[in-house]
Every structure is written in structure tokens, then in C-alpha cells.
């Protein structure tokens, strides 16, 4: 799918070399030409150390829905070196979303990174963490924009040297240029890259926790909606899991979410609708969280379904919920 997403030996400026973790040109070029020299370009298997609470914190989101094409995985052999990211394939125009809060620091051909092609964005998330989104069909945010996790930032496309439409997604952890396996990196943060229910652990915080709290309230658990997965909230989730015959471990993942969500349609009212509206807002819907599934919420559901190549019926069933929460 992605024929130009391996690092190359093209010349870069001194400013760019500095951005690539302060590596000298000699050191950088030593690793860019051959897959045998992976460590020299910072192509690493893991990410810098972080606390368990900061990893599974509910603040990260799936950048795009789709499937993994053959040969599009991180580290796959390419003529210019190992593949630097993970490809996610879907139709041109499929929504592309910010993986976490941050600032758009590059919006240019190849994201201004050597060896990449097509329209690209680079987002800085702070703490020396960056994500790159390549082969975009259209941009939805300007350079220097502040973006939120799950905000739509672009459309999937086939610009640059590719064989079909897809998102080329990279994670740079420990500095721009220190490339890590995006599938493993996102999994540690509760995100199943490409699609799947998220995972929320005790101590988490963020927009996905807000959705969880609304849904738990619908099931009769009197939780504050503050976006913090506190010990009190964990205890209530364990009660819920036990009542549903699930392992009462307090982790909200693929086994628990399907028991929490409801199939909703226009006319539905209640805390479960508030949860849906909060989930849609994570994906740039801008809804009032009022618990009323009216025409505006229906339009937002249909818009999200269309942008992500789901059945456009305006009904929030398990497939739409899973896509929204991922």
C-alpha cells in the first residue's frame, strides 16, 4: 500500500536534523539507508517508561477505522528501509482523527519528514511524543491548530507514492525521529488500532471515562460525571461486571462495553443518550449533552457513520458504539 513510508537518504536541513532528536547527519544517514541499521534511526519496539495510570488513561483515540493491509505493518521490509508505521486501509474520504490532544506542528508534503510522500500532518502531544498521518486526501485543521483527542483532522486518501487509499500512521516517542511500533504503543494506551473496543483501567481519565460514567448511571450506578475513573467508580464497575457474569476486574474492555451500551435511535432519552452524545463530541460533533436523541443527534450519528464507511441508518448500535469509543 505505502511505497514511500520507509526512511530515505534524502538530504534534510540542519533544522530538521536537530528536530530528529538532535542526531547528526552522519548518524541519521547511517540508519536511513539499510534495514540492518534500525537502532541508528531510533526505530524502537517500545516507548519511554510511564506509569500504568498514564498509559491506560482514556485520553487516546483510534486515528482511523479500517483493516491492516498485507505488508503494511511496522518494520516491514521496504527498498529504502523498514516500514516506519502502520497502514490502515479504507476508502478515500474516511475520517482521520487526532490520536491525542496536541498541536499541529507540520502540514506539508510528507509531513516535512524525509522518505515520506503525500499530504501529511505531524501532531506534537508534548513529552517528546508525536504522531504522523500520511497520504491524506484533505486537511480539516490548519498548521499550529490545537486539537483534541478524537477530533477529525483530515480525510484518508491516496496522495503520494501509494497503490491505494489508506492512512499511514506513525508514532515518534522520545523525540521526533524516534519511531516506535504504533500498534503496540496505542495498545498500551487502551486503543486497538484500526478498530475495536477501548480499554479503561483504574486511575484513567478523559473523554472515554465520561462516556463510561453516563452509561453506568443508566444502569443505576450513581456516579459523578467528572471524567476520572476513581476507586469509587471502579467499585461500581466491579459490581456491574459481577451482576453481568463477567470477571470483576474493574477494567472496562471488549467484554464489558457491549453490556454497557444500548442500541439507540431518534426518540431515545436518558443517560445512555448523554453517553452517546459525549462519544460523538469526542469525534467533533459539538452536541449539547442533554440526553435527548433528537434530529440533531440523528444527523450527527449519520454523519459519523458516513465518514467512517458504516451503515448510514442514524441508529447507534454496537458497531457504531465500538467505532465511536475506539
UniProtKB/TrEMBL annotation:
Coiled-coil annotated spans: none
Chain positions covered by the region annotation Disordered: 71-92
Example of a GO MF term: metalloendopeptidase activity
Start and end residues of each M23ase beta-sheet core domain: 82-175
A Pfam family recorded for this sequence: PG_binding_1
InterPro entries referenced in this protein's UniProt entry, alphabetically: Cell_wall_metabolism_enzyme (IPR050570), Dup_hybrid_motif (IPR011055), M23ase_b-sheet_dom (IPR016047), Peptidoglycan-bd-like (IPR002477), PGBD-like_sf (IPR036365), PGBDSf (IPR036366), TAT_signal (IPR006311)
Domain (Peptidoglycan binding-like): residue spans on this chain: 206-259, 270-324
Protein name: Peptidoglycan binding protein
